[in-house]
C-alpha cells in the first residue's frame, strides 16, 4: 500500500494506492482518514486498482480553511479522478464519504460504474443522529474539539479516555454509546488521534456538518414541484432546537426527517448500488417484532430508510452484525459483500436467496 500525493485542479490531495485492474475509489468517513480502508485494500487489491484519498480538511490532504458544500466535496473527487486519468470507477464509501459518494454518483453518473454506501445516507437526516443539530450551534463544536479532541477520538473508537467528555448541551458525545471495544487497536486509535489533533481538521469538521448539510423540512404541497415544498432552517433555528430548555427531543420540530439536498430528491442513479448498514437497525427496532434480522432485509417505513430505494432503482441491501465502523470492526463480512458486489454477483436476497446463506 503506497502513500502518495497528487495536485488536482485546486487541491493537493493525499491518497493510498494499491493493486492494479479496474479502479475502485474508497471514500472515508468522519472522523477517519484513508487509513480506514486498510482491510479492504488487503482483500481487494489483488483484483482491483484501489485508491483512497483523504477528503479535504482531513488526514494529509490540504486544509484550505474554506466553507464546503456537497458540490465542492464531490467536485474534489471528480478532480482527483481527472488528475489520475481515471475516466470511470467503482466507488465504495462510508459515513461522510457516502454523502460525498452519493453526490458524485447522482450528479456525475457517467463517472461511477457502481456505488457502495456503507452505513451512510443520501439526503435525508434521521432525527436520532443528534450530533447533526449540535454542530450547527455556533461555538459548541469549536470549544469541544479544542479541549477534547483526543478524548473524542478515544471515546468514538471504543477506547478509554483519560477523562470523560462532557454531555449535553456542550456535546452529544458524553452519553453516546461507545463503539464495540476491542476492534480498534492502540495503533488505530493513535492514528486517528494524531490526524484529528490538527485544529484545521476541527474547522473542516464543523464546516462539513454546519454548512454542507443545510436542513430543510419537507412539506407535502400539491402546488409544489413533485408535490413538495421545502422550508429551510438556518443554523440559528437548528441551534435553538439543540438548546431547547427541555432537550432537543422535546422541540416541536424534532420529529421531522430533515432533508439537506432538496435539489437532488428527484434524481436517480441508474447503476448498481449497495447499501450496507450496522446492527443498530433491526426488525425488532423497526417494530416488526423479529429478533433475528436476515442480512438481506430491506427496512422501510420512514423517510431515512426509504431514501435508498428512491434514489437507486438497482439496489442491493446488506445488514452487518456490527457497529457503525464495520469496515474496520467486521472487515471479513464487509469484504465478502464488496467482492461480490464489485464482480456483479451479489444477489438480491429478498428476491433470490442463496442456498448457502452467505452474505
Structural commentary:
- The chain has 359 residues and is α/β, with parallel strands linked by helices.
- The chain contains eleven helices and ten strands.
- The strands form two sheets. An eight-stranded mixed beta sheet has the order 1-2-4-3-5-6-9-10, sandwiched between helices. A two-stranded antiparallel ribbon has the order 7-8.
- Strand 5, helix 3 and strand 6 form a beta-alpha-beta unit.
- Helix 1 crosses helix 11, helix 2 packs across helix 3 and helix 5 runs antiparallel to helix 6.
- The chain is globular and about 55 Å long.
- The two termini are 27 Å apart.
Mean pLDDT rating? 92
Gyration radius over CA: 20 Å
* Beta strand %: 15-25%
Number of helices: 11
Number of strands: 10
By oligomeric state, this entry counts as single chain
Separation, N- and C-terminal Cα atoms? 27 Å
Estimated helix fraction = 25-40%
Strand order of the largest sheet: 1-2-4-3-5-6-9-10
Task: Sketch the topology as an H/E string, one letter per element.
Answer: EEEHEHEHEHHHHEEHEHEHH
> How does the helix and strand content classify structurally?
alpha/beta
Main beta-sheet annotation: 8 strands, mixed
Task: Extract low-pLDDT stretches.
Answer: 351-359
What's the quick description here?
The protein is α/β, with parallel strands linked by helices and 359 residues long. It has 11 helices and 10 strands. Helix 1 (38-44) packs across helix 11 (331-343) and helix 5 runs antiparallel to helix 6.
Amino acid at each position: 500500500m503506497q502513500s502518495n500525493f497528487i495536485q488536482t485542479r485546486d487541491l493537493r490531495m493525499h491518497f493510498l494506492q494499491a493493486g492494479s485492474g479496474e479502479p475502485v475509489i474508497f471514500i472515508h468517513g468522519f472522523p477517519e482518514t484513508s487509513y480506514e480502508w486498510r482491510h479492504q485494500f488487503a482483500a481487494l487489491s489483488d483484483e482491483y486498482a484501489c485508491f483512497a484519498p483523504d477528503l479535504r480538511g482531513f488526514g494529509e490532504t490540504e486544509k484550505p480553511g474554506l466553507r464546503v458544500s456537497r458540490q465542492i466535496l464531490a467536485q474534489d473527487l471528480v478532480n482527483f479522478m481527472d488528475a489520475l486519468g481515471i475516466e470511470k470507477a467503482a466507488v465504495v464509501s462510508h459515513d461522510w464519504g457516502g454523502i460525498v459518494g452519493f453526490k458524485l454518483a447522482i450528479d456525475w453518473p457517467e463517472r461511477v460504474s457502481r456505488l457502495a454506501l456503507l452505513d451512510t445516507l443520501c439526503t435525508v437526516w434521521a432525527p436520532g443522529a443528534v450530533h447533526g443539530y449540535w454542530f450547527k450551534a455556533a461555538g459548541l463544536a469549536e470549544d469541544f474539539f479544542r479541549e477534547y479532541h483526543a478524548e473524542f477520538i478515544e471515546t468514538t473508537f471504543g477506547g478509554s479516555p483519560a477523562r470523560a467528555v462532557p454531555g449535553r448541551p456542550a456535546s452529544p458525545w458524553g452519553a453516546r454509546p461507545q463503539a464495540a471495544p476491542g476492534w480498534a487497536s492502540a495503533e488505530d486509535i493513535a492514528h486517528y488521534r494524531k490526524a484529528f489533533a490538527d485544529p484545521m481538521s476541527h474547522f473542516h469538521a464543523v464546516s462539513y456538518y454546519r454548512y454542507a448539510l443545510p436542513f430543510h423540512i419537507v412539506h407535502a404541497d400539491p402546488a409544489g414541484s413533485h408535490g413538495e415544498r421545502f422550508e429551510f432552517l438556518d443554523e440559528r433555528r437548528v441551534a435553538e432546537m439543540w438548546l431547547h430548555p427541555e432537550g432537543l427531543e422535546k422541540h416541536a420540530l424534532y420529529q421531522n426527517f430533515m432533508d439537506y439536498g432538496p435539489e437532488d430528491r428527484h434524481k436517480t442513479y441508474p447503476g448498481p448500488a449497495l447499501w450496507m448498514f450496522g446492527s443498530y437497525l433491526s426488525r425488532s427496532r423497526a417494530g416488526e417484532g423479529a429478533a433475528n434480522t436476515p442480512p438481506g432485509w430491506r427496512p422501510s417505513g420512514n423517510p431515512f430508510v426509504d431514501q435508498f430505494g428512491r434514489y437507486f432503482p438497482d439496489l442491493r441491501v446488506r445488514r452487518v452484525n456490527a457497529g457503525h465502523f464495520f469496515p474496520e470492526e467486521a472487515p471479513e463480512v464487509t469484504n465478502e459483500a464488496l467482492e461480490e458486489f464489485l464482480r456483479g454477483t451479489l444477489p438480491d436476497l429478498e428476491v433470490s436467496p442463496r442456498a448457502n446463506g452467505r452474505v
